[in-house]
Amino acid sequence: MRAQFVLSEIGVGLRRNLTMTFAVVVSVALSLALFGGSLLMRDQVSTMKGYWYDKVNVSIFLCNKADAEQDPKCAKGAVTNEQKDQILGDLKKMPVVDKVTHESADEAYKHYKEQFGDSPLSSSLTPDQMQESYRIKLKDPEKYQVVATAFSGRDGVQAVQDQKGYLDNLFGLLNGMNWAALAVMALMLVVALMLIVNTVRVSAFSRRRETGIMRLVGASSFYIQMPFIMEAAVAGLIGGALACGMLVVGRYFMIDHGLALAEKINLINFIGWDAVLAKLPLVLAIGLLMPALAAFFALRKYLKV
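That's the Cell division protein FtsX sequence above. Prediction below.
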């Protein structure tokens, strides 16, 4: 097969269907940009989970005198030293527990004043109203229920609280946004495939005379189909390259510069350039192969060879 002939046919086909080729490029670029963005969003959520779940604790709040008067869970009175020792001993025996830290009522009061000193309630609180607690760091944050089952309802325990629960709502929202982006990506992908099929069909129809002559002189099916497949592949590759550019520019302006989220939101560990660069070859490969395969199967129907 002469490469010069194939290349010339590709150029002719792209020029003849310039408007539809442009539509294919744009739709492929948008769909693949959403696809790459969804992959990066998934990586970002995983990174945030690993960062935050490693920092959250399970807290066992102990009954104090105020709770004994007001909370039915503490009806048997404030926690005793024996109960505290028993709770601490049981915690240290649990294989899921990595570290246990005791926070006294005075320490809890000090931390509250540091964080909520401007609150109107802070002036009415006293140290004896604050609860003692055990802050437990788990080896696996997903094993919270093991601790909750072991200590909820025990004498001297007012509540077992998992800080991870506060983060689950945030991660649920982020995952929902990711699924929405995937749904839009799938819709754009269908539109792109339909445009590719129509473009190939129009191109094959406009060159039916040339393909007829090629059949008469004994050209193989692959030889006839190759220019059409390459046209779709080139358009898809251009779209994939544009999608890669969108991902790189988006990461640059949203995180490093422009919005500069990395500087403004220090609490989030954003994904690095390595995660972005790792997705670019996949985006380019899909941009090249998807239109080529769509064109190949479309030609089997519309190009009788």
